[in-house]
Each structure stands twice: as C-alpha cells, then as structure tokens.
C-alpha cells in the first residue's frame, strides 16, 4: 500500500475517503504539485490545502463528498472555502474556464487598455522571480486594473475583484505588489497619458460637398504649437502689421483731424469771464 502523509490520511478518514485509494493517490499528487506553485496574496493553510486537494480529487473521480464536512475540517468559512477551492483549481489547471484579458476588457467595457494590459502581464512574468501562471484570474485582473489606472479609465473595482476570485484583503496585498511593479516599469506610459490616439474623423470636402474619412497621423500632433509659442508669434505678427499701417499713413501724408472750435473759447465769446472792475461786457453794446 502506498504511504501517504499522515495528515492527509487522517483528513481522508474524517471525510469518509479512507477506502478510496485512487482519490488518496490523486490528492497526494495535487498536494505535491501545489508545493511547486506560488499562491499570491493567499493565507490558505497546509491543512486547508489538503482538504481542498481531497475535494478536488474526489470530484475528478466522481466520488461524493459532503461540502459542510469539508468546510468544517478545512478551518475556513464556507465562502472562503469555495473561493480558495476555485483558486487552487485554477492554479492546478483543473478547469477550462480561464479568464482572458480580451474577455475581461470586453466585459468591463475598457477595450482601449487591452494592449497595455497584455504588455504589463508579459513584463510581470519576465520580472517575476518565481514560476507563475499568468493565465490565473488574479494576474489577469491585476493587469487590466492597473492598465485602467494608468490610462485613468473608470471601472467598477468590486466587479474586477469578484472576477479575480480573491477576497478584498488578498486583493489589497497583491495590489500593493503590483502597484510598485507597474510604477517602476511603466512610468513612461504614464507621462504620455492623454496623447491623442489615431482616429478617423469626418471631414467635409467643400469642393464636392461629400464627407471623406481622414486619418489623423501621430506625426501631425507634434506640429501643434505650445500656447506660449503661439501667443508670442501672434503678438509679433500683430505688431508688425501695425508698424506697416503706420508707414503707409505717413507715406500718404494723412492730415491730422482738426479740433472742434467749441473746445477753444473765442476772444469775443460772450461767455468769457468778466474783467474785474470793468463791469459786465454786453453781448450787444450800445454805440
């Protein structure tokens, strides 16, 4: 008879699987495989892993297992147990419903960040010191989440955490690691944020009255003047035109505009201040 881990055999007896040799053998195989894997941001104990391995092995061979009993001996609450079981199932590649970046971007309506999310995920795999499966939902969700953060694309955080199949505390721990990684390796992407992308716009052709699609090239964006440069150029051109107008006026000998006679009091004006000691000057003096 094959010798198994004492804890594994004890748990198997508690779950009623002590006589299922193929289940024990498969659970031991899964438990050894898990030792070579890294579960980021998880606090699953060794005891919990063994119970889940027995659960997964029993499911593979179609052996009935009571969920409440498995939850009891795992030391976890039922929602946590179900979530942890899903994580280990993905880690061990026992299911085919893996989530992809393209599918996640479509479901979250943020397809514009798909290319950046794929670059982030690929770079994370290169820089990681451990052998990880980047197709696991927690890594895929992290890549999309931080791609949205860089591009300031709004998404519902609770939805992406749910799709990652992690608890909020596990998500926060993994998020702290990814934030540092993304900030260190994708800082240049953040600087170019907001740069207009290539897109097609409708342009009205004045000659024939038809609408034509014109592709705006990124090279043309570089020709747009900064505001300070544009302002200086416009002021210089206006000053130059003003000087030219003054030169033209001088050449044409433009006469100055005459003043209104009302602004200068006349000597014979009846409204002139009376001379002191001589009385009032009459408008029509007598002969």
TrEMBL record:
Transmembrane helix keyword on record: no
Single GO cellular component term: nuclear origin of replication recognition complex
Which InterPro entries has this protein been placed in? ORC6_cyclin-like_2nd, ORC6_cyclin_first, ORC6_met/pln
Source organism of the structure:
Papilio xuthus
Q: Where is the ORC6 second cyclin-like domain?
A: 99-181
Record's Pfam families?
ORC6, ORC6_2nd
Q: Where is the ORC6 first cyclin-like domain?
A: 8-94
Q: What is this protein called?
A: Origin recognition complex subunit 6 isoform X1
Q: Which GO terms describe its biological process?
A: DNA replication initiation
Localisation per UniProt entry: Nucleus
One GO molecular function term? DNA binding
The lineage's top-level taxon is Eukaryota
The text of the family note is: Belongs to the ORC6 family.
What keywords does the record list, in alphabetical order? DNA replication, DNA-binding, Nucleus
């Amino acid at each position: 008879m094959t010798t198994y881990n004492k804890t594994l055999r004890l748990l198997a007896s508690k779950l009623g699987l002590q006589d299922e040799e193929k289940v024990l053998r498969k659970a031991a195989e899964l438990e050894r495989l898990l030792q070579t894997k890294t579960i980021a941001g998880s606090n699953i104990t060794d005891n919990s892993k063994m119970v889940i391995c027995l659960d997964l092995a029993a499911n593979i061979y179609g052996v009935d297992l009571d969920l409440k009993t498995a939850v009891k001996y795992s030391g976890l609450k039922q929602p946590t147990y179900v979530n942890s079981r899903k994580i280990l199932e993905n880690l061990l590649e026992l299911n085919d419903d893996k989530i992809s970046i393209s599918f996640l971007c479509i479901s979250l309506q943020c397809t514009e960040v798909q290319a950046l999310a794929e670059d982030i995920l690929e770079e994370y795999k290169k820089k990681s010191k451990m052998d990880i499966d980047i197709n696991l939902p927690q890594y895929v969700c992290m890549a999309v989440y931080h791609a949205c953060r860089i591009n300031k694309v709004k998404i519902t955080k609770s939805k992406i955490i749910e799709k990652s199949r992690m608890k909020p505390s596990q998500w926060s721990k993994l998020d702290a690691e990814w934030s540092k990684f993304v900030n260190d390796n994708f800082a240049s992407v953040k600087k170019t944020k907001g740069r207009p992308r290539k897109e097609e716009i409708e342009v009205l052709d004045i000659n024939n009255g038809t609408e034509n699609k014109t592709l705006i090239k990124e090279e043309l964006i570089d020709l747009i003047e900064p505001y300070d440069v544009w302002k200086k150029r416009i002021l210089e051109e206006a000053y130059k035109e003003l000087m030219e107008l003054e030169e033209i006026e001088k050449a044409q000998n433009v006469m100055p505009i005459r003043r209104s006679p009302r602004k200068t009091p006349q000597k014979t004006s009846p409204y002139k201040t009376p001379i002191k000691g001589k009385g009032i000057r009459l408008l029509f003096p007598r002969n």
